[in-house]
Write a structure and sequence with these properties.
By secondary structure, the chain is α/β, with parallel strands linked by helices. Helix content is 39%, strand content 22%. The chain folds into three domains: 87 residues, Arc Repressor Mutant, subunit A, CATH 1.10.10.10; 106 residues, D-Maltodextrin-Binding Protein, domain 2, CATH 3.40.190; 92 residues, Periplasmic binding protein-like II (D-Maltodextrin-Binding Protein, domain 2, 3-Layer(aba) Sandwich).
């Protein structure tokens, strides 16, 4: 069989993401290009690898065999390519970054200038919830992980690189909106809107309220920061969010930040990686760039 590296990479992306359009976006090609690569690969192998029912993509038995084989092989090949680039002292290759959803408010501001300075480095940025990110971290899927709360019980190295203050937001018409130095215990009578279980922000807040012996009345769980802000503006409750989610905020007239004692609650954003994992030139280059250009990530009002 004459199977190309490009065909295998295309198949691996479709199989992993369960999506032709998702694979096209990740590989920066058109969806017809992805479909053509998959068709050629199936013809070469002589068996169907994928089944598409509506918008859902499923692996056939042959597809499952190929996916389990090529995933390991492609990772090995990527390491070989990176090692060769390292030996040559070249700053080129692919950098895989997995980050929690809130980082979408600031990560693109660093990636644009970085890619402009290092055109030989391709970035694959996967944005996901914390549980999914920790799963990928455990599987050593990516080169670098960006999150607000490093995991406990996992053998990792974590380096803070940016402040991540948490603030309490309320509807602009809330009775506490104009109060100063509100005692935290007073919020025990309020209802809160939160992200899903496992969210780094939620873990931090639940720990804080428990330590202070203050009840935390969670009225509703929502799957995104945008949904939470809309719900707060609608008067459904208060929320505690990363201040980065409020930059360039079109809802400023509808929301206010409460002046609560102990807030903003200072946290940090971390670069996390498996402990002892060898760093390629590409990863080291990005980490150093991030340290030296952290001002690009500063909140914009």
């Amino acid at each position: 069989m004459r199977v190309t590296l490009r065909q295998l990479r295309t198949f691996e992306a479709v199989a992993r993401l369960k999506s032709f359009s998702g694979a096209a976006g990740e590989m920066h090609v058109s969806q017809p290009t992805v479909s053509k690569q998959i068709k050629s690969l199936q013809e070469e192998i002589g068996l169907p690898l994928l089944e598409q029912i509506g918008k859902k993509v499923f692996l056939t038995e042959a597809g499952q065999e190929l996916f389990s084989t090529c995933s390991d092989w492609l990772n090995t090949w990527s390491r070989f390519e990176q090692n060769i680039a390292d030996l040559k002292g070249m700053k080129q290759g692919t950098l895989r970054i997995a980050s929690v959803t809130t980082t979408k408010y600031f990560m693109p501001r660093i990636l644009g200038p970085f890619c402009a300075q290092y055109p030989g480095i391709d970035i694959i940025l996967e944005v996901m919830n914390r549980d999914r990110l920790l799963e990928r971290l455990g599987q050593n899927t990516d080169d670098l992980y960006i999150m607000g709360v490093p995991p406990e019980g996992m053998d990792v190295e974590a380096e803070p690189f940016l402040d991540n203050p948490l603030v309490i937001i309320a509807p602009a018409s809330h009775p506490l909106a104009k109060h100063k130095r509100i005692p935290l215990k007073k919020l025990g009578k309020e209802v809160f809107l939160m992200r899903e279980q496992g969210s780094g922000t939620r873990m931090t807040i639940e720990r804080l309220f428990t330590e202070r012996n203050i009840p935390l009345n969670i009225k509703m769980e929502l799957g995104s920061n945008e949904a939470i802000k809309q719900a707060v503006a609608g008067g459904l409750g208060l929320a505690i969010l990363s201040q980065s989610t409020l930059t360039l905020e079109p809802m400023k007239s509808e929301l206010t930040t409460l002046n609560v004692q102990g807030f903003p609650l200072m946290r940090a954003w971390y670069m996390v990686r498996p402990k002892g994992k060898p760093l390629s030139v590409v990863v080291e280059t990005f980490q150093q760039y991030l340290r030296e250009h952290v001002e690009l990530l500063a909140p914009r009002s």
